[in-house]
Write a structure and sequence with these properties.
- Helix 4 links the parallel strand 4 and strand 5.
- By secondary structure, this protein is α/β, with parallel strands linked by helices.
- The protein has one domain: Rossmann fold (3-Layer(aba) Sandwich).
- Bound molecules: NADP nicotinamide-adenine-dinucleotide phosphate (NAP).
- NADP nicotinamide-adenine-dinucleotide phosphate (NAP) binds next to helix 1.
- The site of NADP nicotinamide-adenine-dinucleotide phosphate has 24 residues, from helix 1.
Length: 245
């Protein structure tokens, strides 16, 4: 049972049709927030999330945008606010995750990962901050792999490093009105095509020797959108993996 401390607040959650974005959207709704559910291709899942949120007693809307297109990223906050009113919470969860090494990464991979995983969140943060609001909270989804190196996901990880920097810089730029923080998940959901055993096999190496779940990430996001004295912070929801990098 959760409180309704976010009653009267409206959140935009990107990539909220499924997986972690969906879990965060539902969690914020359980705490009383109304939610704009962004999706790119998962329209049915986004509509299902909207229905679940309405059953929880909050309002919800869906908005489609391809965040690989800078013009669409630049318009998303105003489109969301046009249907839902001013936004008080922004969760940047939508992301590309693909494999690439230093040897084979392509220019297109780097530009696409940067567009979706770093540039779009920056555009959303700017437009969110430009609203006429007294206070707001932003949470960006990073990855525990921003600690150390990740030679198998080069384009992805440099885009997450960029987003980590944008998080800190935006926290400086947009204080005192707006707090900007991040959650860095580790072994939480298996990548597409892998099942639970993928997580179980890897979990033994972690300090906590277990993998997490979407609710663990949602817990961290829910904390950060209510924290009064925290900005420029990263919560590693990773069973301690960042300590071993
Ligand atoms: N899952 C994990 O264990 C894990 C671990 C570390 C970090 N993270 C981070 O946590 C966040 C959420 O993870 P996740 O596993 O839920 O992510 P995901 O399933 O890989 O992607 C989330 C959503 O991003 C959207 N997306 C992809 N490309 C897009 C584009 N060009 N424009 C707009 N939306 C686009 C997709 O929406 P549509 O389906 O509507 O196309 C997708 O459903 C991500 O930032 C990820 O990097 C996750």
């Amino acid at each position: 049972m959760h409180g309704r401390g976010l009653e009267g607040r409206t959140a935009l959650v990107t990539g909220a049709g499924k997986r972690l974005g969906r879990a965060i959207a539902l969690r914020l709704a359980r705490e009383g927030a109304d939610v704009v559910i962004h999706y790119r291709s998962s329209e049915d899942e986004a509509e299902a999330t909207r229905g679940e949120i309405e059953e929880l007693g909050s309002e919800a809307w869906t908005v489609q945008a391809d965040l690989g297109e800078p013009a669409q990223a630049a318009e998303l906050v105003s489109r969301a606010a046009a249907v839902a009113g001013p936004l008080g919470i922004l969760i940047n969860s939508a992301s590309i995750f693909d494999t690439s090494s230093v040897d084979d990464v392509t220019f297109d991979q780097v530009t696409q990962n940067m567009a979706v995983n770093a540039w779009a969140p920056l555009e959303l943060m700017r437009h969110f901050a430009a609203q006429d609001i007294d206070e707001g909270q932003i949470v960006n989804l990073l990855d525990t792999r921003v600690i150390g190196a990740d030679p198998a996901h080069v384009a992805y990880i440099i885009s997450k490093h960029a987003l980590a920097q944008f998080t800190n810089l935006a926290a400086l730029e947009y204080g005192p009105r707006i707090a900007v923080n991040a959650v860095a998940p580790g072994l939480v959901l298996p990548p597409p095509g892998k099942d639970e055993s993928y997580l179980a096999d890897l979990a033994g190496n972690l300090p906590l020797q277990r993998h997490g779940g979407a609710e663990d990430v949602a817990d961290a996001a829910a904390y950060l959108v209510t924290a009064r004295f925290v900005t420029g912070q990263v919560i590693y929801v990773d069973g301690g993996r960042h300590l071993r990098e």
